[in-house]
Design brief:
Blueprint (H helix, E strand, L loop, with lengths): L2 H19 L14 H10 L1 H18 L5 E6 L4 E6 L1 H9 L10 H4 L3 H8 L3 E4 L11 E9 L5 E10 L5 H40 L3 E6 L4 E4 L1 H7 L18 H9 L4 E9 L5 E12 L5 E10 H11 L16 H13 L6 E4 L6 H10 L8 E5 L8 H6 L17 H4 L4 E5 L6 H13 L1 E3 L6 E3 L3 E6 L3 H7 L4 H7 L2 E4 L8 H18 L8 H9 L5 H14 L13 E2 L2 E2 L22 H4 L4 H15 L4 H8 L3 H10 L6
Parallel strand pairs: 11-16, 11-17, 12-13, 13-16
Antiparallel strand pairs: 1-2, 1-5, 3-4, 4-5, 6-7, 6-10, 8-9, 9-10, 14-15, 18-19
Helix pairs in contact: 3-7, 18-20
């Protein structure tokens, strides 16, 4: 079937539909015409199509001007949105109410090029008697549907003139104009998407809490976000399309690394900062590649070093968890210490905590931090006694790349830099080597650190809390601790009394730990015999709160029958012995291992002798069955073998 036959078939189908719709052939005007607010709303809804199509309607009119034709634009329901043509022709069309707001669909006005093109979704040319109503027999109409980028019909473009002006090229003109409109629609939609994408990217770049800079192959800055301007103390308008040489002199080296297939990530870099000072930043760079995978530019991501430190601290748990409310005890001695600690929490002064092992010095240090204005900042604990002497300086003050054999690539920030803005807790300060004490004193006095192998002074705002179990005054007398450092540390000295000097707290702590350990181990709170309870209250607890806590956990594990046997205390050469004897739980014998309750055998024995005898008797009792021995003693097999090696014990 050729185009002419196909057109005739479409006209035939349209006439049949019009009969079914009940369209009156003598009708002159469309049965549906919008006016007033309804028309305004319809025009507003199609403003986008109107704006796109209007220029092309003007171009089409220039081609047919003074030829007796006029142009109509409809929406997807056939409502006329705009008309343009020779004045005389427009007057004729208006007499038939072919005006803006009139509907040209088949149901409203019968067969016509616009209505039938919408129904068939194809270009149509309807002439003279092919129109269903008699009033339109004077016209020839050529129309084509307009589609958006998704293929949806959004309107029609129509060219109408006197029927004697019929020419097949007329429809061709309309189709060409519609194609141009559709192409412009696609271009506009693409531009809208590009603009949306641009605004999305701009919003993302501006919302990222890092400095973002993009440059081209010549090193010219194309974009820079507010964070970068703030970090580097620069104005955006002064940098766009300017060279990045002043900010990043080695940018060409980064491009060369990209071309070699290398990356440039998280590198500590010195860049110009506020006040024209040179500041340390974390810099990463990423290549921008075109469609051919060739590098066309670079994205630079700049972060403040302190922000990196804060992020590291956040995810490595460098936070204080305890507060004064977590400190258990009601004795006057303890409450007085807590009261003093609360009062000095919010000062920047250095605090020196003194007390035996296990008294809770770090617990008090964390509480002081959490009661201060630094509570939201980092809390870093450093055990000066646990750090190797050759590494303590690097750990505390950091080092530059290549400062010594094994130093980290890119350098390494020390604990003081990481703690900037927060609190650093220097535990076992009495174990710090003398040569390191000089460096610590300088930091406390001058407020900055210098990395090993570096020359730049890095300012740090850190509150220092130190702790020791040693008598530092005695250490000063012996020459193992600097006097000037001691006075600098002990601006606010706090002494935590041992548990034996606040016996009132033993009962409180014991009951507290019973509940906590029972919940932790998912066990019931055990019943404690009066004899054991009295021993607990009377015992000196040389290991203080830590020892009591571990004892209670042991007690809960063994349902109230501790594997530690608290022996009657004996004064011997001014030393109270604490037995490491074990209870034979497997047999239910609570009298202890043979010989351990014989007071005479305990006279003048040290803890090591008691432990050695206990292990020897247990090994003999179980005839070298190491599994039963370790179970009986409440220690692991590896610990048992280690102790046997220490005491040179062998299995017979």
């Amino acid at each position: 079937m050729n185009d002419k036959q196909a057109q005739a078939e479409m006209i035939k189908r349209s006439h049949k539909r019009c009969e079914e719709f009940g369209v009156d052939r003598s009708r002159v005007f469309s049965s549906r015409i919008l006016k007033g607010e309804a028309l305004n709303q319809r025009l507003a809804e199609n403003e986008y199509l109107l704006n796109i199509a209007a220029p092309f309607m003007d171009i089409l009119y220039e081609a047919v001007a003074n030829s007796g034709f006029f142009i109509l634009l409809t929406d997807n329901e056939g409502c006329i949105l705009r008309s343009k043509g020779d004045p005389d022709t427009i007057v004729l069309s208006e007499k038939l109410n072919m005006i803006v707001g009139a509907f040209m669909d088949e149901k409203s006005i019968g067969t016509n090029a616009m209505g039938t093109a919408l129904y068939e979704n194809k270009p149509m040319q309807v002439t003279a008697k092919e129109h269903y109503i008699h009033a339109y027999h004077r016209w020839t109409c050529s129309a084509a549907p307009i589609h958006n980028s998704r293929g949806e019909t959004i309107g029609t473009l129509n060219l109408t003139g006197a029927s004697e002006l019929l020419h097949p090229h007329t429809l061709g003109l309309v189709v060409a104009a519609v194609r141009a409109i559709e192409n412009q629609l696609k271009a506009e939609e693409a531009q809208v998407k590009l603009n949306e994408t641009f605004h999305y990217l701009k919003s993302v770049i501006e919302s990222v809490s890092s400095g973002i800079i993009t440059i081209d192959l010549e090193g010219n800055i194309k974009t820079i976000n507010r964070w970068a301007c703030s970090l580097l103390n620069v104005e955006k308008k002064e940098l766009i399309d300017r060279s990045i040489d002043r900010l990043l002199p080695f940018w060409k080296d980064i491009y060369q690394r990209f071309r070699r297939g290398e990356s440039f990530l998280d590198t500590e870099t010195i860049l110009p900062g506020p006040g024209n000072n040179k500041e340390r930043y974390d810099l990463s760079a990423y290549p921008i590649c075109g469609n051919d995978e060739k590098i066309i530019g670079m994205v630079l991501v700049v972060k403040g070093i302190q922000k990196i430190f804060n992020l590291v601290n956040k995810y490595t748990g460098m936070r204080a968890h305890y507060t004064f409310e977590d400190i258990i005890g009601e004795s006057p001695e303890l409450r007085q210490i807590i009261d003093h600690a609360r009062k000095i929490s919010n000062t920047p002064s250095t605090v020196l905590l003194m007390g035996e092992s296990g008294t809770g010095k770090e617990l008090l240090a964390q509480s002081i931090h959490n009661a201060s204005s630094r509570r939201r900042e980092v809390f870093i604990a450093v055990n000066c006694g646990a750090l190797p002497k050759n590494l303590i300086e690097s750990e505390l003050f950091g080092h530059e790349e290549g400062a010594f054999t094994g130093s980290k690539k890119g350098g390494h920030a020390g604990k003081f830099e990481l703690a900037n803005g927060g609190t650093i807790f220097l535990d076992e300060i009495g174990e710090m080597p003398l040569h390191m004490q000089v460096n610590l004193l300088r930091v406390l006095q001058e407020g900055y650190v210098t990395r090993i192998g570096g020359t730049k002074n890095v300012p740090v705002n850190v509150r220092v809390i130190a702790a020791t179990k040693k008598n530092l005054i005695e250490e000063v007398r012996k020459g193992t601790f600097r006097e000037d450092l001691f006075y600098r540390l002990s601006v606010i000295p706090l002494f935590i009394p041992p548990l034996r000097e606040r016996s009132q707290d033993v009962k409180t702590l014991f009951n507290y730990f019973l509940n906590v350990k029972a919940q932790k181990l998912d066990k019931p709170i055990p019943r404690i015999s009066k004899e054991l309870y009295d021993q607990i209250l009377e015992y000196d607890w040389p290991g203080n709160v830590r020892e009591l806590e571990n004892f209670v956990e042991n007690l809960v594990n063994f349902n109230g029958m501790s594997s530690f046997n608290i022996i009657s205390t004996h004064q011997s050469n001014g030393f109270r012995n604490y037995s490491a004897g074990m209870t034979d739980l497997s047999s239910g014998d609570s009298s202890g291992i043979t010989g351990l309750n014989n007071e005479k055998s305990l006279e003048n024995q040290s803890l090591e002798e008691l432990e050695k005898n206990a292990i020897r008797e247990c090994v003999d009792r179980y005839k070298g069955n190491m599994s039963r021995v370790s179970r009986q003693l409440g220690i692991s097999r590896s610990t048992l073998y280690s102790k046997m090696k220490k005491y040179k014990l062998e299995v017979n």
